[in-house]
Fold these 4 entries.
Entry 1:
Amino acid sequence: MFHTTTTPSAPREQEGPVGGRGRVLVRSRRAALGALAALTLAAAVPVPASPAPEPVRWAALGDSTTAGLIVGEPTPALGSPDRDGCDRTTGAYPALVRAGLTTRPPHGRPVELTDVSCGGATVQDITTTRQIPTGPVRAPAGGWPSVAAQTVRAGLDADTDVVTIGVGGNSVPFSPMLVTCLVGGAGLPDVAAPCRDAHRHRAPVPAGEPTEPSGGPVTTGGPVTTGGQEPIADTYERIAQEYAAMLADVHRQAPGAEVITVGYPLIFPADPGPCDRRDPSELAARIDPLGTVSVTHEDIAWLHEVNVGLNAVIRTVTELSGDTFVDSAAGGEGHDACSPRAEKWVEGICGEAAPYWPRRLALGTYTLTCPVGARATLVHPNAAGHARTARLVEAAIRAALD
């Protein structure tokens, strides 16, 4: 009564000799091919690269002990229209620290250094005043034009990560003080301390009779008297105030920066006994028109106290500001200007320097003339001294960025 229609079934996969296992293998091959296709497609789709790490923006500010002056090659190079009379060099500690941080970047971050340090800079030249550089190497006929305050030149802002500052000596002012001590000590015994006494009592510094290298009296010129000197206690107080104001300005201009101040190396020995008053590679000099002059041993000991005292002022103000102080004088005993040549971290009045640096240098109304083969180094750090400071500053920067 009813007519039934039969629908043919779909063909079955042929089983292999192992029956159901064959079906499993076929399905596995299909799954593997599908996964391979997916991987191939994924590989063809570009994967966004990880963003490059933000660079560490570091500004190096300071005076000649930061700029370098006598070590390495000038930067900008001699002949460059960008030269400014500040005498920065490739051998100075900022360049050495940058090399170390480039070799082993802190947390993988590249370092961008802006070095605007300048020989002769005072504390106020860092943030406030325009400076007239006095670099003696190929200076233009009319002198170097003034440069803006260093924080302006460095472009400090909210993105600045690190600021290092090495300044204070020219605010003493140290170079004129050294010349005063040289001239004042001429012909006087080692127990005399004309420079120290003048800076304690705001008195003029009377010079003794200059002598020729042979020991006889010089026939040109005569006794020299310098003007009244600021008492050293007043000097420390003034610099402390200037330094505190400078650090506050730096923090206002670079509110996110780690600020690291760098003290001065140990220039003068605590014990002046070994200092040879006839040796221009130490603390003697031929200064025209006076002849050979030198610092007395008592004044050398006092200049050591000034060196230590200035560092103490910088350290105290730095720590009160919540910043980091690098003690460049630490371990400096036996490496001062009176040390043997192989041990020096600081040159004497005359010493080793790059060949472009002069051996004759104007010092106000005087002219310093160094022996043939020597240069007018005026107690500046040499290559070994900058290498030493570089190790300390690099360690401080790495610690600040941790």
Note: Confidence is low (pLDDT under 50) at residues 1-22, 208-227.
Entry 2:
Amino acid sequence: MPADIRGHGALATPGSPRRHQTSHVVEIRREAVTFAPRESVRTGLDHLEERLGPLIESHLAGRLNGKPWTSVLEELDVARRRPVRRYNAGDVQSQLRMLTERLGDLGHPFDKGGDRLVSTLGNYLRILRNAEKHNDPLTAMDAVRTHDCCSRLLQHFEDQTGARVATDHLHAALAGVLAEFRVAADPGAAGLDAGLVGQETADVSEDSHDADLGALLVEPDAVVLDRQSVGATPIIGSSRLTFDPWVPTVVGDESVIDNVARQANKARVRAVAQEAVEHEGPIHRDRLAEHIGSAFGIRRLTARRSQQITRQLKQIGLVMDSEKFYWPPDIDPQTWTEFRPNNSTVARNFMHVSPVEVANAMRLIQTTLPDLSAEEIDAATLRTFGRQKRSKNAAAHLAVARQFLGAPATAMN
């Protein structure tokens, strides 16, 4: 996360007259009155929106089969068995989805060397866009981080003209922050690169995955990885979309969770939760709480903080089923038939895989390989989600999933 900028009064250079310090404070206070964080954030996102569409098109040239890049998002809807929407290449929401989601066989084509920098910057901007769209309270630091992310993204795409404009926006926003804290400093010395890259919090519980360090890699069977529908998705391929973990990006500190009753903090938690559910849903309540905690710098949630987050989730209006999984609003748990395989390197607790999702995998295995015994079906299902061991918890979760083979989870709210 960009470093906090704190101070008390103006910083004077050695030997500078007291009179100059006083006039500088007056000037800064005037800037504090005129700076509008929401307008600044909107300006930054509008600028990115104007630049990013053609850059995405150019980056994917030769891989789109002559179609616009928005066809990739439509194919992802098909592969995920979600309602197929029509996307606008000039909409920053569509653009940021391209940067942050795994695009089937294309992978994460905008990240270099697996560093996920572009994905992480994009995730941060998705949260800020969500907050701006819902008229949530925004601060001068939100504006600074928005322009910093936009500048770095455009630099990544070697759009120097666009990056210069974003940097100008950044310096103007930083002046607003400096005015807010009554500090005069060099904008280039603010340390804005520090800490923006988020890191997913590893789940180290007994059922998170089968990794003791010497364990063999557990891969899903080939039968569950082929969707057999390449005609409908020629760009992203016919492989089943594997589980793509949401990478939490730090958007605030622990005080947001500790003071979540405040309206501004509630709004920021809602924005994070909505983006996490949209990317990773169906997602278990506890995993979602962990993601939210990570987004506010909390590596391990205490029971108290987990309860604070859970209480807020009840007020957000997301769809939670009877098994405590949150679903994106455009997926009906009653009719969804997809699942997302993963190997044993992915930190996803098997208990945090929706029973509906497990049942969908079971159903495909049963249908494709009808001669398998119940025990063999269970083993193949476990491998689908990167597991080898059939622990008591795993066996219990499989039993719950079998109940959903004919009856998906019931939506509760």
Note: The chain has three domains: 37-189, 222-229+235-240+339-403, 259-327.
Entry 3:
Amino acid sequence: MEREARLAAQVAREMRREKKSLAAAYAFLVFGGGVAAHRFYLGRMRSGFVLVSLLWGGLLLSIAYVGIPLVLAGLVWQVVDLFLIPGMAREHLEDRKPYVARRLGVDEQAIDGLLVAAARAPRSTQV
């Protein structure tokens, strides 16, 4: 029982370490939106590259007025991302569970149960 409590606390610690900060994600959106920094921070590499291509490709093509719709689409996408960031952060944490399980040598299906056990355990075992 003691071993399971220790393992549960370790899993909880590792999952907290994997969690992404919403404040940082929003800061990346506001200050690094032109390079899709928020998407890269949350592990969304493909859509990050697409967003960068839309914004910068559209900017380059705007000389011929062809790229203006691309830039506008990228800007609308970033406004939509204001509402999507919390969900992307949750999904990122869910995606990290198999890596945490492998790193700790725990069955992947046991991660959720161990997280519940860690939440129920007294604080002294979670330190």
Note: The helical segments are 2-18, 22-32, 37-41, 45-61, 68-104, 110-120.
Entry 4:
Amino acid sequence: MNIHAIIIEQLEWDGRLKSFSLQAQRDLGEMWVAFPNEYQNERTGPFHFLDSEYENLFEHRKAKCRNAKLASDKFYEKDNQFYISTTWNEIPTKRHQLTFYALYLPEYAIPDKIEISDTYLSNKLFNKMVYRDSDKNRFIVYLECKSSAGVFNFKLDAIFHLDRANFSQTQFNDNKTIGFYERPLDEHWRYLLPEEEVNKVFNFFAEQLVINNGEFKQTYKTQMTTQKNNPWISGSFYLFVGVLILTILAVISNNVHWTLLPVIIIGGILIIGIIGALQLKNDDKLNDESFIKLMSETYKKLPLLRQGKSK
């Protein structure tokens, strides 16, 4: 796959974390990589580089990368379990340009929990890929960094333990784990449309968060959301009703005594009001209590009909 940038981190048991990044270079051309399960060739990192020049550049960056010890609240041990928390903010992203983050857990570490969330929205969880690298005896956590805002922020929290004996038989999977090149079914359409068309779809469908056994999941409504009424559409409807009533009044005025015209006019006005109230109720702009009150006030005006008829 053609990738724009990668961010690599490697954690050791003493809490030291190697961190570095690699971007596609203009003089080297496009950076093509493959996931570790695609080739049997020897590799030095979480990706196979299809170009030897990029592989050499990767090894050079890795040799000179930062190797800092995490703070005690970012990496610690409790009851034979190890906890790590790392955060990355303002990762630049562009549409049609892939950026990946990859974290190597310590050697023979078996993950018990891996959760990647938005830095500023803790209930927004991201999908991840988790691969057991038997060559390095490490688990690798992959995250595709994508955002329509142009920057990507995330916080990774993981819990793991040391188990040399069972490492080679262990797999990790949870409801936010996906396979390589796999996309959730509800996200496939995003990658088939231009960006402006994606925005139109988001305006048509509303995102919502639902809770499933205490866990937040992002889904999409399958029904069209309530839209604001177009005043031209609503206006045309009431204009049509008004013209229709005036036409009927004009016809009736030639066939009934003039003293009945006030009754007909008042009845027509009340009918238009009732139609308007029903439209508001249909659009959920009027709750049941307000609708009942409005209908009551309308029917209180009915004595006007009797008064007009008695004249």
Note: Helices lie at 52-63, 195-204, 231-253, 261-282, 288-300, 303-310.
